[in-house]
Amino acid sequence: MKKNLTRKIIERHLVSGEMTAGKEIGIKIDQTLTQDATGTMVYLQFEAIGIKRVRTELSVSYVDHNTIQTDFKNPDDHLFLQSFAKKYGLYFSRPGNGICHQVHLERFGLPGKTLLGSDSHTPTGGGLGMLAIGAGGLDIACAMAGAPFTLTMPKVIGIHLTGALQPMCSAKDVILELLRRCTVKNGVGKVFEYYGEGVKTLSVPQRATITNMGAELGVTTSVFPSDEITREWLKLQERESGWVELKGDEGCSYDEIIEIDLNKIEPMVAQPHMPDLVVPVREIEGKPIVQAAIGSCTNSSINDLGIAADILDGRTVAPNVSLGVSPGSKQVYTSAIEAGIIKKLVKSGARILESACGPCIGMGFAPASKGASIRTFNRNFKGRSGTADAEIYLASPETAAASALFGCITDPRKVPVKMTDYTSKTEINDNMIIPPAPADKFDSLEIIRGPNIKPCPKAVPAPAEFEAEILIKTGDNITTDHIMPAGTRVLPYRSNIPEIAKFVFEAVSPGFYDRAKKAGTGVIIGGENYGQGSSREHAALAPMYLGVKAVITKSFARIHKANLVNFGIAPLTFENPADYDLLEQGMSLYFPSFMDDIRNGKRVKAVDRKSGREFYFLHDLEEKGVSLIEAGGMLNYIFKRQNG
């Protein structure tokens, strides 16, 4: 049987289940990564499991999100992460070394390996031919303990690339075109696998841009073949020995094929406030901006910075625009200095920001009130930038640089420059990566814990029956940013659930925390694609802490749905979608046979006490998922199995 690349990698790592789309499977995980916004909780959970050393081939702890140090909380967490990594067998990438996805691509990623990361943009590794998947932190902790990762076997969508990109058009425009066609919710339950003659025209960083932002499609992951282009990239990184050729068999089948002619790709831009509100740049050209930002895990390679520098070389950023540039890693930063890129950018008026996530998650460089900002980032959800009424546009480095130059959204083809390949300037220096201590030193090492680090709370086992207040009713496309905001006010409490819980739904419904505390037990009603966006498990963990027993929606985003189950919250959908209109915030629902319904079928009954009306909700939990809900989440489930 001829196999596509996705099936080949899954087959080599399959631990349980059958490879039929929609069926539950378990796969062995070779590598894991965490970042500091999610990592502290991951490692607290790993400690609770009770394993003395990680059991993966490689695990890396990165600090790239919360690098602003306005008080003790962030630096305390950094020390915790560093001491934990040394003791338990992880590599530690220090603050300033760069964004996890860029650094992992450069220094650790290998074709054919599985990578599980507590960040939704972990699929960046697919640019190297990895099966790289974003997941909730508890899934990462379990993978580090040697457990297989459970997921639904995805459909595999073949993205057939032909032709070659034209001047001033980029890989970012390719993924924006796919978002225009497929939207933010039509990738759920799918892997996008790229193949065809057009693949060999794209560099590894270009491929990584596409796989990175595939997360916005809702896909499980995206993957490119590993070919001579991959080999040359790894050779540049002095890691050629890890290269293997990987591709789908000639004539292999896909569940669906999408054709992309790279010759026809033009500069694109995503408009506020969703990554799929995409139009050609020419359609909104002239829109005034006050800010431009180049960087993030999507577009911060040396060539991304280089093309922007060449556009701006000898020119000055428009007086109404503030331009910020974030190199993706220390390697990119130092190499860009060597190549003269940083000098060109600074002379044009750009501000060089830290090699970190920064503005992408609202950690500095926020736009002015009601200001329009064009960014090479991957998300433009309302308020994510740190300015609630800002308008965020997503585009390529070419478009962002041209727009910064003219002070308005501008088609970069109006300022053509010859594309320079700066990759030969790459400088390898791993002095900001700390290896783990030898296993025989384990017992002598202590974990450093600041006062803001609290134990991970556990849910109680699911009740046989319960009554719960509807705490909130949301619309479609609610993101994890809506549920659990990021930014400088909130993220420092990532390892303190009682405190971070006070911010749940703050921007959507400021009274949510007080209602939840008063009610004691609650449910949430949502629309389509509930929980899209970040993998942050706090968007499930904090509601669990506040007594939420079920989330009832029209449909879920993959990672958030898994996180809910991991923390003992039942993800339910409407049997009759029209019932969504009948349920409102403040109503009380009684679930007379909740656990029996979960165990014995796919249908859960609830009753509105006031009217007597019955409602029926559905779940698609397999055997393990049912056990997790019954136990009150993964930690309780593991503890019970370990202790009989």
Order of strands in the sheet with most strands: 21-22-23-24-27-26-25
Query: Helix/strand/pairing class, anyone?
Result: alpha/beta
Distance between the termini: 43 Å
**Low-confidence spans:** none
Mean pLDDT: 94
Largest sheet: 7 strands, mixed, barrel
Q: Quick one: how many beta strands?
A: 27
Radius of gyration: 24 Å
> What is the approximate shape?
globular
Tally of contiguous helical segments: 21
- Percentage beta strand: 15-25%
Structural descriptors:
7-stranded mixed β-barrel; 29% helix; 18% strand; alpha/beta; 27 strands; globular; 644 residues; 6-stranded mixed sheet
What does this molecule look like?
The two termini are about 45 Å apart. This protein has 21 helices and 27 strands. It has a seven-stranded mixed β-barrel with strand order 21-22-23-24-27-26-25, surrounded by four helices. A six-stranded mixed β-sheet has the order 7-6-3-4-5-20, covered by helices on one side. Strands 17-16-15-18-19 form a five-stranded parallel β-sheet, covered by helices on one side. It is α/β, with parallel strands linked by helices. It is about 30% helix and about 20% strand. The longest helix has 16 residues, at about 75-90. α2 crosses α3 and α10 (about 300-310) runs parallel beside α13 (about 395-405).
